[in-house]
Amino acid sequence: AQKVTQAQTEISVVEKEDVTLDCVYETRDTTYYLFWYKQPPSGELVFLIRRNSFDEQNEISGRYSWNFQKSTSSFNFTITASQVVDSAVYFCALSEERDSGNTPLVFGKGTRLSVIA
Amino acid sequence: ETGVTQTPRHLVMGMTNKKSLKCEQHLGHNAMYWYKQSAKKPLELMFVYSLEERVENNSVPSRFSPECPNSSHLFLHLHTLQPEDSALYLCASSQPGRRGDYNEQFFGPGTRLTVL
To answer: Three-state SS for B34?
Structure first.
């Protein structure tokens, strides 16, 4: 069975600090996909990144970076020099490969990040 | 309109009412999804439609009835709901690729439902 655990329920940081959001997943499949979404107060989930299980390269996009480690089943997300606009709930999600081609996502419970000016 | 839109954004209904939530995607995708997000539980997948055919139904009570008349529209018909059904209902769409080529889902802003 697939499962995503985000152990950090809430995190508060002061602006310009770096912050890492943890994500640990469980799956029996060898082919799977990991995602991060951001949910600002407006409610809409905004896609940030997708990573497939065969690509363990870390990725950097501006102030965002992701560390994928299959050995520890983790897909952590780091925001460098955080800003107030980063305040949101962040969700990690997992999907397993299906013949149908659909991508039902299993989400973690989310981490609420508050960046204080 | 662009992306995924949902109407209404807010809905208050009594337990005996019948209402419908509407989702429309303008992305040319052929898969659509309903999720429920409540304060107590993480995002829960309710239904998946692919090419207008329901392919997943995650043990959702029959008081929730989805309808997908075409690949751009998805409805969630509600009747005799309970107060515990109060939640944010999110619609999403995606363009499933070939096996091994999965695309991300794009979400609408959600409908905040309150059942009195």
So the answer is: strand
